[in-house]
Task: structure prediction
Amino acid sequence: MIKENSFFTKYLDQPLELPAVILEQVTENILLFSFWDLDEAFQFVSGWVVLSESHFYLFQEGEIEVKTELNNVKKVLETSTSSMNSYEFVSIKGKFLARVNFTNRQKQSMSGVKYILDELSEKKKISSVLDSQKVYEDAVLRNIRDKQNIDSEEKLGVVKRLLGYLAPYKKDFVIGAIGAIGSTIVALVPAYLSGRLIDDVVKSFQNGEISRDKSLNLAFTFLSILVGIYIFREIFRWIRLKKMSIIGEKVASDLRRDLYDHLQDLDLDFYSKRQTGSIISRVSSDTDRIWDFVAFGIVEVGIAVIMLICLSIVLIALDFKLGLLMTVPVPLIIYSIYLHGKKMEKIFIRCWRKWSALTDVLSDTIPGIQVVKAFNQQNRERKRFNSRNEIALSEFEKVHHIWTKFWPRMMMGIHCLVLMVWFLSLPRLLASEGDANYLSAGTFVSFLLYMTMFSQPIEIIGQMARMLNRATSSALRIFEILDTKSFIKENSNGVEKKIEGNIEFKDVFFTYDGVRQVLKGVNLKIHSGEMIGLVGPSGGGKTTISKLMFRFYDANAGSILIDDTNIGELDLGGYRSQVGMVLQDPFLFHGSISDNISYGMPEVSKLEIIKAAKIANAHEFIMKLAQGYETIVGERGQSLSGGEKQRVSIARAILHNPKILILDEATSAVDTETERKIQEALDKLIEGRTVIAIAHRLSTLRKANRILVVKSGKIVEEGEHNSLMDLKGEYFKLQQMQNYSGIEVTKKEIENEVRV
Amino acid sequence: MKLEFKEGFGLIYIDGELEKSVSVKRSFPNSHPDKYFSILNDENQELMFIESLERLNEGNRKILNKYFSRLDFKLKVTKVFKVKDEFGLRNWEVETSSGKRKFQSALDSWPIRVDENEFVLEDLNGDKYWIDLKYEFDEESRKQLSFYLD
Result:
């Protein structure tokens, strides 16, 4: 798991937890705490706000600044600028208590403190089970974690875990490794043979030591061995490439499978805290990088290291002095390639920035081309694009200027080494054979050939750090998801039963972030076959109630009963298959309309699909499409209007035949005629089911048996339309507001429409 | 209309018997900081629009200047120690007008030019760091910044 401490030190320079000096001064149980980081002169400072069960504390640099009873803090006044936020704490007597300033980094955790104080000042009950440490860590690290989850100390562990994915393919990996080692060692032989050929054949013949026939025979033998060596080398190389690239694909595929499998089990909580793009890139690009690393990275680096070691040994063995001359500068060459790589990375940042400025123009103008043309701004846009294009070109020219200078210089250095080898070798080549310094022409040729083999492995090793970094980063991003636990625990002994649709909430509390209670003791009882309308201001908790009914989340306190059985004791899959949902913005998958209607029910007949579409008032528009029910919709498919998509999703719900149906703003954001059609479809859909309809437009709840008004996480009113109107409370206010804003035509019309 | 500044209550707008806690928003905070303000109530509804500070009486002008002195706080970069790209984010270690700071920006998030000599860079948490080209940065800082500024 990620070590939070290293994250705080590495990225934030901020304490991971309350310092001991503060803990000594706060003796009661701590509800929540937060760091604040700017003093009155806007200099960085180490400050803490601590809420204990009974007191409010403010610390600066470990010293207590304010300590007062918790219920003495009446109000928290907030001001924000682009770089700073301030909270002013005001006492119950209206006296100024303190002010803290903080950057946006602390905003989330400080707003938790404000929330608790606001709730307490309104005499609301606060959960005493807050995990203050976790709330603080999550609040401060959430943005960094979404981008980066690497702790450098973990890299070795990550590589080990990644290599664990090779275990099922051990045999193939060993064969691939043999291929890699074989091809590397065999590649060293031709240079040696070439030297021997010169010394034992050419030179011996020239010296008259062997006859022409014998030398030709010997030469033929050498060449035959060379042919064999080359064939072996390519066979080894073929084994290596084939085995390792396939293993790479298999490992990437296993990771993708495990990842996607796990993603299906993760709670909505996980998805709500992460960006979709970030999750998709882990399944696609990160696994692709792993393939690249396993298929080529491990092997290429392995081969390069083996090759370099073998070459060094061979060169030193061939000639100690010349061998040392060639091998000693190798680390220096590798280091300079590494430095060059780092420099190029920086230079590429500029290129990337200019490139991004160029593509910004494209993403502005292409989607907005209608506006560009309507305002006759083509020339302006041409100029804007061309100027950025030229700037990008000039940056790329700089890049080419730098790398084209580096490599010739580097090669010049290597050539100098070769020249030095020549320089030192020539007197020895010209020496007589009996001389201690004598160097044979064949040995020298072998030496020269080995030297040409030096550059490639050096280059690969120079890039090893970057390659390893990228692969471990990708692997850790994948493992992070694989290690995420689902909070919704599937009960292995879950009761599988046909539900009737009775729902009961008993004193249900729920929070998404561990601090802000979205539901605060909700009690409700819905009978099978009843239609309940949930109304109230946005953010009041209506949708959260519906999500708990689906068991997308578990309540933090209280219980939810379905037909008198605790929702947690039911078989999750079996239960969810009996609950349906029609959302405000229905989602259609890429595929045919027919596939979308029968989603999750592949066995249904075409006639059943058509019947469901007819009930949903969708058949008519579907038949107007050229491909009828086989029209492809979703991404890259035929675009449907909001109302059409809604009717397809209603047909899906009809076919699904749920016992409990949740309608979440199903008719908002459509025109009157479409709304009428959707409403007709919904009227048919709700028959014989328990229906919970969330609606802003109160007129859509005309068939509801009861209406519950949800506000600030509580059910504040409950009853039939008329009795709620008579109450002249929240529901009445909502009606009045809608009348006033013109959403509803007249009150009379509502009274006629909303019959309970 | 009269403005007052009260600790614990912030800026107070007084118009006859009406007394409200208000905030002030600039329409052009970078290019015209002394012009075009909205005085907003706590529900962000505009109570008054002021074209220029000069149009206010001296008392109100002083109060607003005091108010803006807090509002104008910026994290100004004065030295760059290190900028390092990692997988997924860019790490900055800088000295600011408020002290040393480590922060992270997205890899594709570049400093944005807000006027001829000033850039602003936003980190992953939404904190903004101002880079003034006229500031006398040391050579290393200039070199580091050169990759990120025009």
Notes: Residues 2-72 of chain B form one domain.
